[in-house]
Design brief:
There is one protein chain. The protein has 389 residues and is α/β, with parallel strands linked by helices. It has a six-stranded parallel beta sheet with strand order 2-1-3-4-5-6. It has helices at 42-45, 49-61, 80-97, 140-143, 150-166, 175-185, 231-240, 260-269, 281-290, 305-312, 324-328, 341-352, 356-372, 375-386; strands at 37-39, 67-69, 115-117, 133-136, 169-172, 192-194, 218-222, 249-253, 273-277, 293-296, 317-320, 334-336.
């Protein structure tokens, strides 16, 4: 195996060498080891976007080039009720033992393998060495701790401290996440690199089905109803901008998350807001295809997949300034301060005022951005990292 020969040099904050460990100014050659192990306990816990990424990585590399492990359950992922029970037990273990050396998982059987942790949390119940790799979507529990419960914040704090202590390689899904990580933990790691995510093309294949009862122009937000998505500010901007009086509706769809009650309560009080809940892909495609703009002034995104999905359909994103959302669409968007409802409203009005030619030109640029963010590009970067081709 020679895949780790092409890793990036560790860099300091200004692009110079990171000051730290002797002999680390050049990339490290990978030792001859057993097949790497994907630590995929993440897939027991939820079915979010990160789950799709973990699944695609395992499908690409397991079993030909790598092994996989699901917590204490070996190489077979549980499903249905068994998965939910395992998830609860796994989180209880993490919260109780955290970084304790007691009962670490599989430490002897895989001592010579490189472990690829598909979420930082799961380094807690495993051995961790410098030769391992951690996939990091964001450092939200540390950088935006007010958006998370106390247990989650503490678990991730301990996990990131273990990562800092051992200095493994860390792969990020955006430069925004990488820079946030460096601002907290520095750059003294085996290497830090970014492999951007991709649009799940299958989401946009198939027929389009109109959302019943919706006609005319509308804005669109897609994402879990949770505090960090900042739907409250977007709703206030829509309400205060008088868009309903102009015949413009506002559709918010997605699953229910932390903070949903306050969001739904406000949404139901604003005339013109449509809450279809979690819609099937056929209706989601139709919404993306017919909306005036995609609105998501999120407080925290590790990559910005919602904006990239909008770009895939040529739909203009209105997103938080200087965020991973902007990075995901290569700046082809309207940027807003996420807590400034007046600015969000102005951006919504700007989106409505575009000419047909302006809309067509922006749509073309967005589709080009999304075309570059392919699954094949993502997997190729991982192939180069792990197996050298």
């Amino acid at each position: 195996m020679n895949g780790l020969l092409d890793i990036e040099k560790r860099q300091g904050p200004q692009g110079g060498p990171a000051g730290a460990r002797p002999g680390r100014s050049e990339p490290l050659a990978a030792p001859v080891v057993e097949r790497p192990l994907f630590e995929n306990s993440l897939s027991i816990l939820n079915r979010t976007g990160a789950w799709h990424i973990a699944r695609d990585l395992c499908q690409e590399f397991v079993p030909e080039h790598a092994q996989v492990r699901y917590w204490r359950l070996g190489a077979k992922a549980p499903e249905g009720l068994a998965r939910k029970i395992a998830a609860r037990l796994m989180m209880m273990e993490i919260s109780w033992l955290r970084d304790s050396r007691r009962c670490l998982i599989g430490s002897k059987a895989i001592k010579d393998s490189t472990r690829i942790f598909l979420d930082p949390l799961f380094v807690l119940r495993s051995e961790l060495t410098e030769k391992d790799i951690v996939l990091c979507h964001d450092v939200g529990p540390l950088s935006h701790s007010d958006l998370y419960d106390a247990v989650t914040v503490e678990n991730y704090r301990v996990a990131y401290e273990k990562i800092r202590r051992h200095g493994p390689a860390v792969v990020f899904v955006s430069d925004w996440s990488k820079n946030s990580f460096i601002s907290i933990h520095g750059s003294n790691f085996r290497f830090l690199t970014t492999i951007p995510l991709y649009v799940r093309g299958g989401l946009f294949e198939g027929p389009l089905e109109a959302l019943p009862g919706l006609d005319g122009a509308f804005f669109l937000t897609v994402g879990a109803f949770e505090t960090r998505k900042n739907q409250i500010a977007a709703l206030e901007a829509y309400r205060d901008g008088g868009f309903y009086q102009q015949g413009i509706r506002y559709v918010l769809c997605g699953s229910r998350g932390e903070g949903r009650d306050r969001i739904i309560e406000l949404a139901k009080s604003v005339p013109g807001v449509v809450l279809p809940g979690y819609v099937p892909d056929s209706q989601l495609r139709w919404l993306y295809a017919h909306a005036e703009a995609f609105v998501l002034p999120s407080l925290l995104e590790g990559f910005g997949m919602p904006a990239l999905e909008a770009a895939y359909m040529g739909l203009l994103p209105i997103v938080s300034e200087q965020s991973a959302l902007v990075e995901a669409v290569e700046g082809v968007c309207l940027e807003v301060p996420p807590k400034d409802t007046a600015a969000i409203g102005r951006a919504m009005r700007q989106a409505l005022s575009r000419t047909s030619a302006e809309k067509a030109e922006t749509s073309h640029r967005l589709r080009e951005v999304a075309a570059r963010a392919s699954k094949e590009r993502f997997l190729q970067r991982w192939r180069e990292l792990l197996i050298g081709r």
